[in-house]
Protein 1
Amino acid sequence: MPEPIVVLIEDEPQIRRFLRATLTSEGYRLFEATTGADGLMQATSRQADVVIVDLGLPDMDGLEVIRRLRAWRPVPIIVLSARGQERDKVAALDAGADDYVSKPFGSGELLARIRVALRHAAGAAQGHDGRAFRVGDLEVDLMRRHVAISGVEVRLTPIEYRLLATLVTHAGKVLTHQQLLHEVWGPNHGDQAHYVRVYMAHLRSKLEAEPARPRYLRTEPGVGYRLVVD
Amino acid sequence: MTGILRIPSVSSGVVAAVVAVAAATALSWAMFPRFDRSTAIMTYLLAIVAVGARYGRLAAILTSVLGVAAFDFFFVPPYYTFAVGDAQALSTFAVMLVVGLVIGGLTAQIQRQARAATDRERETAALAAMNRDLAEATTDDALATTGARHVGEAFDAETRIVLGDTDEANETRPGSVRLPLRERDRQVGTLDVRLRHRRHLTTDGHRHLEAFAGQIAFALARIRLAAEAETARVGVETERLRNALLTSVSHDLRTPLAAITGAATTLLDGGARMDEATRRDLLDSIREETERLNRLVQNLLEMTRLESGQLRLRREWHPLEEVIGAALARFGERPVTLTIPRNLPLVPIDDVLIEQVMVNLLDNAVKYTPPGSPIRILATATDESVSVEVADSGPGLPPGAEQRVFEKFYRVDGNGLHGTGLGLAICRGIVHAHGGRIWAQNLPEGGVAFLFTLPLTGTPPPALPTDA
């Protein structure tokens, strides 16, 4: 397999310097851009496998970069953002970004996001390749509609199952409340994010040993949920 | 009421003089056969005194003239003519007239003085009543309203007070009296009075009104001075906080920066000669110190947002368990006992901010208690609110610090640790923004508990659709 191509759109030289070291040593081919316009050009001309976009670019809104990339082709997009800007993250995710990391972040976190994004882009998402999804003691088989903890089957209601199935389909990626509402309840429940929270609590009480300290179903405050993959 | 001239009094004085003279004539006529003329003179003088006392000097003079005429007509021969028979009668007229004038004048004067005394008493009482109410006013506008009401009642007048030296203040209303409200040489407002029932102000009344205006201006000055003193106090307080912030931030920034610089340069210079464990330790310290810096910056930003009023709550209905769980996920091995009832209602909160409260409280508990000692989190609910308690088993707070720990830059002395003194102040700001309360109490069994409540306000969320 050739080295995956990463296009990094980031205007801060210190961050580029640190990511250059991290990504090249991990075997990615890196192309850098300091403006949104240059980044869009590089992403298309280099046939990027992953695009990393900082939300605070000098020449154009990060959201605009995401929308134009999305209009081009479904390349995985990972957003760099600051903590305390949860609204911006949600907006970026709802505009089509795949995931985000909050500055300051460790290199391990970003690399994990990139791996998940590449895996999903390759169409090898768990549950779609015929194999069951497994993490820790949790096992979800989407073909057989079978959920088990330590080999013991767990009975879920239809909504609980749809919620879990959506998370499994996007395992490792963050999903916003809007995305989950749309996937599980359909398009007409936009302002009822508490549905998701209540059913997530039900799901945790059935799947987690300690529902308040979830091992699998992580909360990303102000943003959404993530099903962990390792 | 006071100092106001009643215009129709002239005609009633004339009527009174005529009636009084007629009555005195009738009485004297009835007594005349038995008594002599001097009795009639006394009767007329009595009438003059009576009219003078009630209707004033002009009426007394009129009564005197009419009385002399009636006396001449009825009681001085030749009777029933104004002709005068002898010189003695003429001197009687003169004396009667003079005595009448003097008595009428004196009576009227006494009456006037008595009325003036009553008026002054009422004026003083009205002024005192106004001053009492003015003392309670804390703003210019409240004071203007109170002042206008009192002046309006005292003078039975339409009254308004316009603050400042504006065009509106200087525009004249027809038929009104305008008095400037002055503080030293500066006009601070205008008192504008229009008497009802088309009356006008006497000299005394004007003086009285000036007394009211003076008191109102004085009260305005008092409020302005109090406001200036408050501004000065806030200024000093802001300055003190700014200094505390600079001291605290420069110290808290330098310590981790020194540690990072030290570790990084050590690794650069001698990293190759070190064993793996030492290198790792230095690298770990760099990571930990940057995390500390990050928390500091986060707290400073949060505090700035809270104080500038830019904090916008994004309230949604959340299960508290999830928010507490998200905060707990940021803490490592420390044993935490969680007691959260399964039927705890959804709470209308900004989850990111309440998570910050939990993180700060947990951070506090971890920092000030021995490693490995347990921390308890307990959530309970009533019909109106949900409350959360974070309790540790550390040394507790020194007496009197229970309130002060929530103040900015307050730190418990002598524990050798330093936080920014912002964490709990941020907790308080966020909880208050949610309409809740937060407090600390030392526990009888040792340790300290931090508690906060979150009210269950607003329309509860729509019920969940069926799921079967």
Protein 2
Amino acid sequence: MPNTKNNKNKKPKRPLRSLLSDKRAISVALTTMIITAGVIAAGIAVLYWAYSWGNVANKQYSEAIGMSQDAVKESIAFEYVHFLPSSNQLSVYLINCGKTDNVKIFGVYIYDSSSALIASQHTTNNDGMTLTLFDNSNTTSLDTGKEGYFIFNPGPLSPTSFFNIRIITERGRNYDYSFTTP
Amino acid sequence: MITHSQHHSLRRNRKGYSGIIAAIFLVLILLFLYFNVYTFMLDRNTAFQDTVGETQQMNLERNTEQVTLSDITFTVLGNNRIDVSCTINNKGSIPSQLVRLWVEDTTINKYVNLDIRDPNLHYDYVLPAGSRQGFTTTIDMLGVSQTDEITMWFVTGRGNKAAFFPYTPTEHITAREIGSILMNWMEFRYYDFGENPPQPNQMLPEPHYSCDVARDHYLIIGALFKNEDPAGRTLILTSDTYVWAVNPRGGESEPSLKTEFAWPICKVDAQGRYIQPFQPFDSQVFLPTPENSKGDMIYFVCSPSPPTFTGPYQRSPRVLNIIFYANTTTGAYGQNIPFVALKFLPTVTITVTSMPSGRGYVNVDGTEITTPHTFYWFPGGIHTLEANPIVPGVAAGVRYVWTNWSWTAPPSGSSTSQTYTYTVPSSDDIVTANYQTQYSVTFDYQISGGGSPTAPSVSYMSLGLPYSVTAGPSATVWADSGSTYTYTPNPLSGSSESQRWWTNQKSGTVSLSTTISPTYYHQYQVIFEVSPSGAGATDPAGTTWQNAGSTITITATKRGGFKFDHWSTNTGLITIADPTNGQGSGSSTTTATINGSGTITAYFT
């Protein structure tokens, strides 16, 4: 009986004891936990990497597509082009009639009636050419609905002649117009 | 379903649960990536489609907007101010916002602009569709005067111009690419062949640099373009290259207006002669255009527009699309390129001619033509007809002097304005520059028989007006062909009752360049008498004029029972050769030499 009783008392403590006494079992459990934790960590890391990569790619692509979209929606119209022979000043009045803000003028080209390039001017930085708004403030970009002008000196132009002017914007769009010198 | 044995083996396999977890993570990652990419692409596509739709709507509204000005008046107030008034008509189907007024004085090369959105001006700058609104303002412009040429226009928020221009310059529309090749259109022109198709080797007529084209004519359209492909690729046009004209107003919403037709590319040689449309093995190679080059021309033949291009949309712009089935070094492809917007308009036939006809008489819109010349012009168009005032003839001594313009279209009329601003009527017309043919004529004269009378005057006609000149070797004038001239007086001044200088060529008709020189004869008065009176008759008889120094035959014939006796004269300046010739007979015939005035008497017994 005592043996039986002892056996009954010892029975519940047997797994823990056996586990504690069984070094191999402890090793298996630890290993399983470590591997599981490693896999979870690695999975989370990969998940985070994928998320980050997606965000970066999304951002870069969005910027690229956004610029294209802005370029597509961009529209500039010439209000008036005036040449003053006494000073060789060409005043070019523009209006942003598109759906895109922040339109910058990067270059202007003058062609004669035979399409020969007469004069040109480019910006040397990313700011765009300086535009004067009708309130006499200066800016380098035109927002939607805004009007502005720039003055360009193409040198002497033949009187009573036909010329073409082309402006290039930061987004790569170009706009042509024709004018006649006095 | 995992069996007990499988579960047991799984428990025994310490890597089993890790593998399952890893697999779950892998699936999650893949799902995450797929979802991310899908939503990303969906988002981008939606955004781009929205952008394209928005841009198309923007362009559609800009093309639909139609604001015009009428009843424009400029009143210069004298203190460098101008009263500007006009009526603004929104003829489009959408409201229009006006943002700025521009006024230009082209005479003094000055301009001003006015922001009409300024609330202080109190203008209702948003015009509803179909509305009309009067506009009046006063602007300052230094140096303006009433005689200056002034024009004005409004700029709308969509970038259009509302103006009243008799002529709107062609706006260059640039197509940027053919496929992936960067192209740059530089110039557009067309050649009008009228109602007849161009024939091989036919020279191209004068080009037109306008986007208004005759809808019922054969045309050759020329386009100058550059191959600006950064990769330096070559473009090869073949007989598969076509140009399409489409009606942009047609389509799904208005299928009845959807009209399109194609024109083939054609060959024009260096001398400007039309050859033929491209044949299957013809090709035109466009290498990358060198810098500073003007580019290369391509031509295509346009048949008259089909009858479907009629009705209310016949004046609508047609976008001329270009489809190039063109070969490049990287392959063959086609691409639709909006090129230029054309207006297909009906025309009337206007013949500009001159009387006489030929070259050098008339300039039309600044270009010299050979008359008669047929134009196909649009009704209401304005052209400048300029007549050369004096055109020398091919032969020496001939010239043609312009007198007036005349036309036949009702109401017919004429104009004496040498540079005539011609407004094309709604029906065919013949406009004629009328010239007067003139000859260089020298009005001289000669004296026969001596003497020094006063030189005669000559009256003649020049450009329908009478003129007079004193005859002589230097009296050279331009006289109208077919007109008459008259020498006066006849006899010349200096004549008397006994002598005169007289001509029987005092008048005539101018018909060529020459020297007209009538002869004035010096004549003496010689009186023939019969004695006794009634005894006979003489020939000549009575009072006569005989050329000085001439020898004339004189005859006397008896009457009744008389017989001729002799001739007698009262002056020694008249010599009778045989005074008694026929004495005793019934008649006498002899000669008399006249060197002065006197009387010759025939005596009978």
Protein 3
Amino acid sequence: MQNSSPVADDRHDSAASHRILVSRKNAGRALVVLASLGLLLVLLIQILHATGAIAAGFADWRPILYGYLLWAIAFGVGQVVARGERGLRALFLLPAVLFTVAVVIFPTLFGIYIASLDWNLSSFEGPHFNGLNNLIGLFHDTYYWNALGNMIFYTVAVLGEYAIAFGLALLLNAEIRARKFFRVVFLLPLMLSPVAVSWMIGKSLMEYRFGPAATLARNLGWDNPAFFASPWAARLSIEAMDAWVSIPFIMILLLAGLQAMPKDVLEAAKVDGASGWQSFWHVTFPIMLPVSVTVLIIRIIFKLKLADIVINVTAGGPGGATDTVSSFIYRVYRDRSNVGYGTGLAMFYLLLIIIFLTVLLRLSKRWTQKVA
Amino acid sequence: MAIVASASQPVRKHHAASRKKRLLSRVLIYGALLLWAFVCLFPIYWTISTSFKSALDVTQGHLIPWLDFQPDWKGWRSLGLSPDTILQTSTARAEFMSRFGNSIITSVGASVLALVLGSLAAYGLSRFRFRFGWMRNDDILFFFMSQLILPPVVLALPFLVLYKALSLLDTRLGLILLYTLTVLPIVIWIMRDQFNSIPIELDEAAFVDGLSIWGAFFRIVLPLAVPGMVAAFILSLVLCWNEYFFAALLTSTDAKTLPVMVASQTGSQGINWWSMAALSTAAIAPLVIVGIFLERYIVSGLTAGAGK
């Protein structure tokens, strides 16, 4: 690909183009250096201003943002000037990379720093450095470990969602009338905002006194259909709502996998006299395994972020039985305004997620390759 | 109806037993389909119908309009959106409209920004070989995709502090930047898949015709990538419209989005069911419409790269 595009400079004689290239290279570099120095200068002024060393400065840190934007533009122009064709190519990737560095990498690093502070945003005292105290405190926080335990339940429950979604995908893949209608209807829950779902299902359908779900449960013989009173009922109810929203996602991906499946394999199984159940278990399921594993991993990643429904329906109750890590940290911040401790909890959670997913990806690689 | 029709016209002649079995399986399949369709639709139906109910109809569990209960614009009146109140001034409607506007601006803004950044990056990753230190194309792609695992809580509190310093708290721009970051990996994934499906010979032909890299991108490749862009845009729109966590932490008055408004109403005890139902209906209506009419794009967005 490197030689596929003509470079205008190639047509000049080599010595002249060399001279131009050198001067262009220097100009480009100078621009980048200049811009970087400018940004650093603004940053330095603002830091000194914020710490009270000098009077001159800006009211807030917003100019640093504009400075970064200008620096990014200068950096891009510098790339093109200095590296020509290759700079033009880099320009495709640069905006996304610089954006990501600014809004993901930098805040994450900043978060690691905050995690080492005792910082109550609502008090006037400001941050204190307290080293590993947040980390030590976290190990004694039974509510946090309880939330982590709940995450295990929610993660395992993904398997149940997967089973239902697989069934639905098989149904949609069968020879049926009105397939389009059913597909649209089955997809609808995915479109709804979890917050609206919290009210629609959690707070009204499952309402103890006159929600239709409670009425139905009473008619089915559950005398006391309190969906959110006992820990397990509450956990299962939250999981049911989350499943309702996210099953369509799994279903759509599995359906795509089923439709891409070679038809002749199933025909062959039929000719061999396999029953429907046998051909599913010995043909469809193994062929679908790589897709399944991919879907499950994506779904688990999203599941680990579960928060909205819990915050809005039970706020973690009863007694933390439905808490997810995210909803717990949300309350830690809302109730105690302790940014330092909250961030510490979040960082530890991120660490656990990374370890868990790395192991999961390792293990799943073996699974997907065994079949493929 | 369809069950009988399809089962009574077998292509080949079957024995009575296998015919019975076939009929049974048809009944089971359609039974399961209808059951799940009911599961999907009932909460939506319940919400919409409740917005037209009075307190008595709610407590007695009336379900079917005109037969069970007399529908009334009750819920919509409390939002100032019923026919008789729509022309009067209403503080509830003013608040709702401002939240609605915030949701539209933030979700469209973030989707556009993510689409621009993501398409460029995806095209670069699909066409050129980059080297950034030890990172090759696959590593760079992984770098972008790895942000998907970042739970919102990890970024939420640092952003709270940063936005306070940048005076971006409670601004739509602040939310747009965050939402862009949450959907960017998905956009890159969909768009890379889209660009990979466009033959590279087209780019080369454009270079021969004297177009620069960027000229080829804008004039030849981008018009062909419109389906992928539409899919990525709609998917981002849905995700941003529904986002609650960041909005709840980072907005207070000016930039509050619709989910935050819905949530704050649910939190208060003794809220009228009908007005809550009307609010929920209004919050989900745009997406239900998107889901019905643009389902094709959502499915193609979700399945980008799957099964290949």
